[in-house]
TrEMBL record:
Stated family: Belongs to the ATP-dependent AMP-binding enzyme family.
GO molecular function, one term: ligase activity
Pfam families: AMP-binding
The name this protein goes by in its record: Acyl-CoA synthetase (AMP-forming)/AMP-acid ligase II
UniProt domain AMP-dependent synthetase/ligase: residue ranges: 75-441
Gene Ontology terms describing biological process: fatty acid biosynthetic process
Length: 484
């Protein structure tokens, strides 16, 4: 048995299990810059996190650049409290699942926290501007409501038209429109064990189980990724993901939870206007970004084309990449941004599944991403991991690491019989930890099929090497290129 210097990587009897323990170092030997660790928060639930952050960091801010609008956290705290009082006056029973349209607007956050502070769970509804004018877009929302058993949807003034079309399609839906009480009123206590969020993985809702997370699981996921990626209170985040996408939602909540600053772009911004987003990253002095590989590829293309002119991106130190990054694209990313002052260590691959809050693994701060060179034939035909020199060239498969498990997360690979897979053999990836869902919402059968002895079966396949996870066969998940 041996242990990695920073993570626990146990090799017992030829099997591998990787897990993370909390660490609080200020500098990594050989690193070029200090690791920024977040200030500890005692908040046990999402609501308490907002209240604390608004008090300790009143000028924390959420920006919506495309709308030229922003929302201070101190204002969000007050508005959501009065919104919650209004919702309670509409006879919403505590514990009810209430639909919230995930729009890239300040009102989304007010409605989301209003629902949570009223003691309800928020069902995150897929919202894409323009799509709701068509039957298919409306049907996706109705399917989500039906599958989750939600009968109420909150809407604001700007989304009144969407609400009316939903009511026409499904007359049983109850709409609660805009409104806040003039004064703050007593609100129910929120506990870390009660449900906070219900959502669906990106893609079609019909026939899929909803994912339910408690307040405690959401908080555990946020803390774990921030600590493991070295993201601190002073960091500025720019992201361009849909807010009904769990990755985009948790990225936003992670900054709200600690009182940080976050700039939220819709996914289309990294399409036609990628150079504008890249310029914004520099001008806003962003230090952290969040997106998927497709979005980063568009930023890289804008950098290669010189579309942004002279731009200093030296402050950009963490680029969280939610899947899809390949070794060739990593090489292109590093080459394109080197002249802008961006280091190779900035690229931070994540492994995430919708059933866990935020992420399962991520690259350690101030370290270059790891690429494993293995024998392609042995990997493809026998599922064996045989490391070779990269210089070998032909017959070599290069696989990018997804990093180490985040704090509090355990990852293992197992064989067809459910027993831990031998070292250097590809197996099914299973995860366990405080940020992993307890089960699917209203779907015991799917829960029993996916959770075994406390381990969630992700459906992905891969191997562990030196405590790092390498995904070789991702399960089919509908995350389109347009999602950033």
């Amino acid at each position: 048995m041996y242990r990695d210097r920073r993570k626990n990587h146990r090799c017992d009897g030829g099997t591998a299990v990787a897990e993370s323990k909390g660490f609080a170092i200020q500098r990594i030997p050989g690193a070029t810059q200090s690791v920024h660790l977040p200030s500890a928060s005692a908040a046990a639930d999402v609501v308490e996190g907002l209240v604390e952050s608004s008090q300790h960091s009143p000028f924390g801010m959420v920006y919506f650049p495309e709308l030229s609008r922003s929302l201070r956290l101190i204002d969000l705290e007050d508005a959501s409290a009065r919104r919650a009082s209004f919702l309670r006056a509409q006879d919403l029973p505590p514990g009810e699942v209430v639909g919230v349209l995930a729009s890239h607007r300040p009102e989304f956050l007010v409605d989301l926290f209003g629902v949570l502070r009223a003691g309800c769970a928020a069902l995150i509804l897929p919202f894409t501007p323009g799509a709701q004018h068509y039957q298919a877009g409306l049907r996706a929302i109705v399917d989500a409501l039906d599958t989750a058993g939600a009968k109420t949807v909150v809407t604001d003034k700007g989304l009144a038209g969407v609400g009316e079309r939903l009511a026409e399609l499904c007359p049983t839906i109850r709409l609660v429109g805009p409104g806040r009480t003039a004064e703050r009123e007593p609100l129910p206590q929120v506990f870390h064990t009660q449900p906070a969020l219900v959502y669906f993985p990106p893609g079609a809702v019909e026939g899929r189980a909803g994912i339910a997370l408690t307040h405690g699981q959401v908080v555990a996921g946020i803390r774990a990724v921030r600590w493991s990626a070295g993201i601190g209170l002073e960091d500025v985040l720019v992201q361009w993901l849909p807010l009904h996408d769990p990755l985009g939602l948790f990225g936003l909540l992670s900054q709200v939870f600690v009182g940080g600053r976050v700039h939220v772009f819709p996914p289309r911004a990294c399409g036609a206007a990628a150079e504008g987003v890249l310029r914004y990253v520099g001008e806003s002095r962003a230090t952290v970004t969040l997106g998927r590989a497709a979005g980063y590829a568009r930023l890289r293309e804008a950098a290669e084309a010189g579309a942004t002119g002279r731009l200093d991106l030296a402050r950009w130190r963490v680029a969280l990449v939610g899947g899809g990054l390949t070794p060739p694209e990593l090489t292109r990313f590093c080459a394109a941004f080197a002249s802008y002052g961006v280091r190779a260590a900035t690229a931070t691959p994540l492994y995430h599944v919708a059933e866990a809050a935020f992420a399962v693994t991520c690259k350690q701060p101030d370290t270059d991403p790891t690429v494993a060179a293995v024998d392609e034939t042995a990997l493809r035909e026998r599922g064996k991991v045989r490391h070779v020199h990269e210089e070998k060239g032909e017959g070599t498969a290069r696989i990018l690491s997804s990093g180490h498990p985040v704090v509090g997360m355990r990852v293992r690979t197992v064989g067809p019989d459910g027993a831990p897979a031998p070292a250097h053999v590809v197996g099914d990836i299973e995860i366990s930890g405080g940020a992993v869902m307890s089960g699917y919402h209203r779907d015991l059968r799917s829960t029993l099929r996916s959770v075994r002895n406390g381990w969630f079966r992700t459906g992905d396949r891969g191997f562990l090497w030196n405590g790092e996870l390498f995904v070789t066969e991702p399960a089919e998940r509908v995350v389109g290129e347009q999602r950033g």
